[in-house]
């Protein structure tokens, strides 16, 4: 994974500058020192593939009118991959320089009128895989009033409005209404697992669990175990976004969301749904703190609504085939079932030092679920 960084412009400072060279040099030195001391930490990817899935055979499929053929896809639960992530110092210095002297950037990248920030114009819905990470956002420090300041997520949709379903159409012999049901059930799973305030505050994801097929071996049992007794191998964060309310709480009511859902004919006679979404959570420490930081969670889910006339499944319930998660700004190697965001003024927590590559948690063009080691991130 590569760390996308802003290119710094060079050139002579206009003679009208009111900052002397000596003051400017001292500013740069102080900025680099402070950033190294207080850069927020955060982790990178962890992926999980469901332990069971349907498998057909040539001719009459295995389980025809008797039950699905379930088989392990990739062993037991995949490990959660989480790491310290330090904001890249050169990038942070570049942002600070631009904030102080925007004349270093040619043209007028932030618009000619400071009061009308075109960078806050909502983005259209994502319809295809991005080809690159979002460009650098206008500099800003997150606050309670502006929790997404300095983040490209400022232009993303708010909450469930960001989960836009494609128009359902028939898939050969599969009628339109079954496609619509598969899409709606997937959306219900995503919304409850990642946007329900009670779930985000550590509550039980009842609606999300209700759309999953209880006849799929181990999946619900594993999820129930993870909620009851979190561990490295049974971690609810594989599928649900949760913060410990004793430690942190959301800064405001808005979670920013960006991603897309697609559908196709599945391998098991039903509707296959692919979902890829990133959720950005601004949070503060519990107890009255006003210092805001952000945790970024990306989820990729593959599910299917199998043909109930060919397989022994629960009609209308989803079969999970894969669920990968990639979390940014949460301490490494803590497996208590909660995300643990790091704050600039906070001493690092977690046991693992960063050893993996640097990533941009906003980069939706990259694959997730490939990285084992703790890594670093370029921005939050």
Quick structural gist:
By secondary structure, this protein is an alpha+beta fold. It has six helices and eleven strands. The protein has one domain.
Provide structural commentary.
With 380 residues, this protein is α+β, with helices and mostly antiparallel strands. The chain has one domain (38-87, 147-377). 18% of the residues lie in helices and 17% in strands. The protein has helices at 21-38, 89-100, 176-194, 197-200, 206-210, 219-228, and strands spanning 45-48, 53-54, 70-71, 157-158, 248-250, 256-265, 271-285, 292-305, 319-328, 358-359, 376-377. Strands 1, 4, 5, 6, 7, 8 and 9 form a seven-stranded antiparallel β-sheet that branches. It has a two-stranded antiparallel sheet with strand order 2-3. A hairpin with a 5-residue loop joins strand 6 and strand 7 (271-285). The longest helix has 19 residues, at 176-194. It is globular, with a radius of gyration of 23 Å. It starts with 20 loop residues before the first helix and ends with a strand. Mean pLDDT is 77; it is low at 1-18 and 35-117.
Strand and helix layout:
Blueprint: H1 21-38, E1 45-48, E2 53-54, E3 70-71, H2 89-100, E4 157-158, H3 176-194, H4 197-200, H5 206-210, H6 219-228, E5 248-250, E6 256-265, E7 271-285, E8 292-305, E9 319-328, E10 358-359, E11 376-377
